[in-house]
Amino acid sequence: MRTTSPDLRVDLCRVRLPNPLVLASGILGTSAQLLERVARCGAGAVTTKSCGPVPRTGHPNPTVIDWGHGLINAVGLPNPGVEAEVEIIAVARELLAPLGVPLIASIFADTVAGFAAVAERISAARPDLIEINISCPNVAAELGRPFALDAVSAAQVTAAVRAATELPIIVKLSPNVTDIVAIARAVEGAGADAIAAINTLGPGMVIDVESGRPILANRVGGVSGPAIRPIAVRCVYDICTAVNVPVVGIGGVSCGRDAVEMLMAGATAVGVGSAVYRGGPEVFGRIRDELAEWMSAHGYTSLSDFRGIAHER
Amino acid sequence: MSGDLPSAARIISIAEENTRVKTFVLDAETQAQPGQFAMVWLPGVDEKPFSLVDDHPLTFTIARVGLFTRQVHALHVGDRLWWRGPFGRGFEIRETDGVHLLIGGGYGAAPLVFLARRLRAAGQRVVAIIGAKTKTELLLETRFAAMGCTVIVATEDGSAGVRGLATDVAWNVAQQETVAAVYACGPEGMLSAVELLCTGRHLPGQVSREGYMRCGLGVCGSCHYGPWLVCRDGPVFATNSE
Ligand SMILES: Cc1cc2nc3c(=O)[nH]c(=O)nc-3n(C[C@H](O)[C@H](O)[C@H](O)COP(=O)(O)OP(=O)(O)OC[C@H]3O[C@@H](n4cnc5c(N)ncnc54)[C@H](O)[C@@H]3O)c2cc1C
Ligand SMILES: Cc1cc2nc3c(=O)[nH]c(=O)nc-3n(C[C@H](O)[C@H](O)[C@H](O)COP(=O)(O)O)c2cc1C
Ligand code: FES
After folding, report:
1. With an 8 Å Cβ cutoff, is B200 touching chain A?
2. Complex confidence, ipTM
3. Atom 30, ligand 2: which residue's CA is nearest?
4. 3-class DSSP state for residue A81?
5. Taking the model in full, what pTM does it have?
6. Structure confidence by residue, pLDDT tens digits, A214-254
């Protein structure tokens, strides 16, 4: 038998990714050169740190802690504001173009109109896709309850962004709901081209037992990394049974086997965030190679050979 | 398994280095390379990055510049500080012929004390050039002398040692001595001058840079310097002049 390396390419909303691994928002997405580095390390697409209408300094430290089975974070969405972000995206696009790695611009706002305004402004910089972060659990005190916690609000934001841009839009959902499928259906109905799931779990809390104080300055934060993978896989599985749009499966993926699992749950692409903590930016090349090796070992030549097979068994 | 949560350590001694700087010795130890840093936490206040001055016992030299460092300076022997780390990449020590040239500005002298201790323990010759604007801001110069390093003090106003910049002194030393390697920590302007020196004289150089640290873990991207993360790929970077 002739052995050829498996085809890892994937189309997400008519955008071609050289492989299904996507840098998740909020991890290393703060500068054009860092995004380029992650792409060179083997990511199939890269997502910018979520950007809002105006600059934000974020929460005081501690903001991110390794608690033993993953991370907990309350960074508080620090970002330079959409005007500065447009510059970053323009530079990133030029750096990424020769690599054939698409750019996803992540946005947030505190009102429906704010989401539309940021989406319209960011579209001028021509990212390949826009991701709408309606699911950050760490800024409720300032920005209000995440829109992703309620199907009606989630749909309103989606519809407003849909009307504000021609670019394909990904809506990023929260696992911190009783029925993620209802939210997924609502955003699909409102015009989402894809769904990303999941954002961080919780919020959770870690207390320093010497001082008796919560460690994060924000007291609570979103949980990520290996500990949340089974929940992420279940969310992706459930969403894929209910909607027709593609799903970017995110949560606790740190090796080729984990990526295979996400794809078997039905994901079209696979987000990687916290694994960068242990593996560095190079983790993308490693997971990509492990995925390819697994496919070769199992006689699969393309991702569609096994995508979603957990639904049939 | 509780990951890398901050650990509490008691302060066992405090030394006043100058009017704005104190050295805190803790009843904790770790294994670190000179140049690595830790995130130091005061519950309810903040958590900020500081270079290790020693790993055994854990020691920090902290300049009072704002809210967090003011609160640290208010602590007494017996009080506690929390820390996590060590993080990042420190100075790489190569034992070769010639003198090891250390150039420190401001609290940049702190990690260089740790480096000098390691170099001296390995029997290497060390020349430490310690720069400051004026005499009262000089830092740790006596520590280097006590370890048997040749110390050259440079102040911009000439109130102590040579008048001028530490990097100007470094050019002179590089002319008179065989320099094995250059190591620097200080303000960005000084580091640029050190890079020029290393390129100009074809010297292997390493400089410790600063970035705005949040996670210290290489995930948040806050400390980016070009395509690099100061907390993970640095804080010590090669000058690429070899
Ligand atoms: C790798 C590294 C090693 C350091 N080592 C030492 C040391 O050995 N001794 C020492 O005295 N200082 C050191 N610093 C600087 C020290 O972190 C800051 O002085 C301290 O954070 C100031 O906090 P503050 O609340 O007192 O002052 P603020 O008023 O909050 O800040 C004063 C200045 O400190 C810097 N700073 C503040 N927060 C941060 C942050 N999270 N990350 C990086 N810089 C910040 C900024 O330049 C700011 O303008 C180091 C910094 C880095 C990045
Ligand atoms: C430090 C940190 C910052 C994050 N910031 C964002 C953000 O700005 N926007 C967003 O949509 N998700 C953010 N996330 C969530 C991640 O994109 C991802 O959905 C989540 O961490 C689960 O994936 P993982 O287990 O691979 O990290 C952040 C996560 C971490 C750990
Ligand atoms: S401080 Fe977060 S990546 Fe360096």
Report:
1. no
2. 0.93
3. A26
4. coil
5. 0.95
6. 999 999 999 999 999 999 999 999 999 999 999 999 999 99
